[in-house]
DNA sequence: TAAGGTTTGTCAATATATTGTCTAATTATC
DNA sequence: GATAATTAGACAATATATTGACAAACCTTA
């Protein structure tokens, strides 16, 4: 125990009210009547909430405004509440955030980034996961990816290159984010006629966070994504592309390996793909191969927002000239 | 039946009305006259419905508007109602199923394994994910892991070694299972005093499915798991173990590489860990290093059930001699 | 076919439950 | 002292429950 108290920040009821969008009276009533949350107290007896409480109240707010009666859902776990929301899948609502100005949100996000980074340093996967969960609830998934995950990964990446973090830190984070990719993806299934893309990293490129991010983004953009993880030979990537009928292949290149393997693999892959699919390459160290990419007519992905543009373009040109047969 | 304690998803009559398309009065009348549904009650006496009730009412709505009299169909099972609809050839909304009898379970599982394997061959990640999702709901997570995931991975593994599957197949499956690990883990959070374990694969060992399975199993067994993914040098694994205060480290060795790197890494890791943590090794190809493991006093994990036994033993011996300070 | 009974959806009246909000008096915090 | 939190209780607005009734639709059978 005592982990929650020390690990996550403490909030008084007015803050909680602002963040959850519930009146203070209501928060107290829900506690009194249904033990929806059970905050600790100060010596003087004032309620002290943590991040989990806030996430919980936020979820309860959504669930009840979805038609559920508070008495029936107050004792459900975070996961059960999330499932409930997922099931209901009410695309009509999408209420513009009750209040919470954009500056609040920015501050909140930075706060989360700090907390997450601290959890990474401490090697505390559980804590990191909790922060992620809360953040996904508080910020919308889309916002979470762009404004929290991306900066966090950049920070981890650069600090790792600077020697401030061990490889094991990065591995742990990668493993966790991979496992959480599910809840990020799960909300918007791609339509059947969506275009397909294969995302991977070439052989010798073991760091896949960027590629993983890219695949989440592509799913959000309504693509069918076949994510293959790291370190695959060109034939395999090409085979996956062919099997899935993908119109694009994106490679993540983020290790400064600068050896001869990567150029060779890219060459081979380009040859194997021919004109069936567009080849894209991105990542921190893609620059190292700029000449090669130019020569082979491989599209360079500058950053994530550039990636989104490329996806849109490809999608449009694909839709305008449907199946050749 | 009598699965009300299912805890999640309890609905009041207005919600049920919206979802089923039946007026509240009618729902009550059907209950009063024909026991079409038998909801539980709140303390105050209000009706509380679950997902099955809703599915049932939806079906009854369709069936009756198809011409059947409510008195004749009110007591039919979900399956019977569905059959009725199917016969009538009325392409209406499909209703999610939940209920399953235990006798079907084995057959059902084998069916799922077939379907999942087919999805893997077809490179259809979305389909595979759907099968997984359905299976996890239909079978309990625990059962899912032991009776579906394990055989499926074995099948994939052996067929991959036999050359029937491409590496890319295995990569895709790995990536997907990693991302679904979240919902498998998420239901039973480990208590704060749970022992910790680090799970990884040594450098040059890139295939992590086994290690991933092991980490899911360990989480189910109530351990704090720090999962580091594949291909980590010994110092990193040792560092993670030290940081997290883990009492055990499990390595997955499933590639027939039989080179000199793995023995070297295991030796180094054992040295780095000293007596602070128990070193375990498992996986298809751990046999290749049997002599080394014996020499270094590394526990060999025979299979997943053996792994569970080991975890229990370690947990007990850890609890009996708590913190040295 | 017409009469008579049965089924079925709907409604009304009355009583109880649930739930968000509010007031008042008191106590913490800074 | 000003601001914010606390408790306890009260209140009104909805939602639900129960019971009984009723007419339209549906049957059966003479």
Instruction: Give the helix proportion of chain A (percent range).
Output: 55-70%
Average pLDDT of chain A: 81
Q: What gyration radius of chain A follows from the Cα positions, in whole Å? A: 22 Å
Characterize the main sheet of chain A.
5 strands, parallel
Strand order of the largest sheet of chain A: 4-3-5-6-7
How would you describe the overall organization of this protein?
- The structure is a homodimer of 325-residue chains.
- In chain A, helix 7 packs across helix 9, helix 8 (125-138) runs parallel beside helix 10 (167-185) and helix 12 packs parallel to helix 13 (261-273).
- The first copy, chain A, is elongated, with a radius of gyration of 22 Å.
- Chain A has helices at 3-7, 13-20, 24-34, 51-65, 70-73, 78-88, 102-121, 125-138, 141-161, 167-185, 209-220, 234-244, 261-273, 290-296, 304-320; strands spanning 40-41, 47-48, 196-200, 224-227, 248-252, 278-282, 299-301.
- In chain A, helix 11 links the parallel strand 3 and strand 4 (224-227).
- The first copy, chain A, has 15 helices and seven strands.
- In chain A, the strands form two sheets. In chain A, strands 4-3-5-6-7 form a five-stranded parallel β-sheet, with helices on both faces.
- Mean pLDDT of chain A is 81; it is low at 1-7 and 90-100.
- In chain A, 58% of the residues lie in helices and 8% in strands.
- By secondary structure, chain A is of the alpha/beta class.
- The first copy, chain A, binds a DNA duplex (30 and 30 nucleotides) through helix 3.
């Amino acid at each position: 125990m005592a982990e929650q108290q020390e690990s996550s920040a403490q909030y008084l009821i007015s803050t909680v009210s602002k963040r959850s969008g519930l009146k203070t009276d209501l928060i107290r009533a829900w506690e009194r009547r249904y033990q929806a949350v059970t905050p600790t107290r100060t010596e003087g007896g004032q309620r002290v909430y943590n991040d989990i409480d806030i996430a919980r109240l936020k979820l309860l707010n959504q669930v009840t405004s979805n038609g559920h009666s508070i008495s029936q859902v107050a004792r459900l776990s975070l996961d059960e509440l999330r499932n409930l929301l997922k099931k209901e899948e009410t695309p009509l609502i999408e209420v513009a955030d009750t209040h919470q100005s954009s500056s609040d949100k920015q501050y909140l996000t930075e706060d989360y980034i700090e907390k997450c980074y601290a959890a990474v340093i401490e090697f505390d996967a559980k804590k990191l996961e909790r922060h992620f969960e809360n953040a996904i609830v508080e910020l919308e998934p889309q916002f979470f990816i762009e404004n929290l995950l991306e900066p966090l990964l950049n920070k981890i990446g650069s600090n790792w290159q600077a020697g401030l973090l061990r490889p094991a830190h990065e591995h742990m984070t990668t493993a966790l984010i991979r496992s959480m990719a599910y809840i990020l993806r799960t909300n918007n299934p791609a339509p059947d006629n969506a275009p397909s893309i294969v995302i991977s990293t070439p052989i010798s490129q073991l760091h896949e966070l960027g590629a993983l991010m890219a695949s989440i983004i592509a799913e959000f953009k309504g693509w069918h994504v076949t994510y293959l993880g790291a370190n695959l030979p060109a034939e395999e990537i090409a085979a996956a592309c062919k099997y899935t009928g993908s119109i694009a292949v994106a490679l993540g290149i983020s290790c400064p390996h600068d050896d001869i393997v990567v150029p060779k693999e890219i060459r081979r892959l380009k040859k194997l793909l021919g004109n069936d699919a567009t080849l894209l390459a991105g990542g921190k160290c893609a620059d190292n191969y700029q000449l090669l990419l130019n020569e082979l007519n491989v599209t360079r992905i500058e950053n994530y927002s550039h990636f989104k543009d490329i996806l849109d373009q490809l999608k449009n040109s694909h839709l305008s000239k449907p199946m050749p047969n």
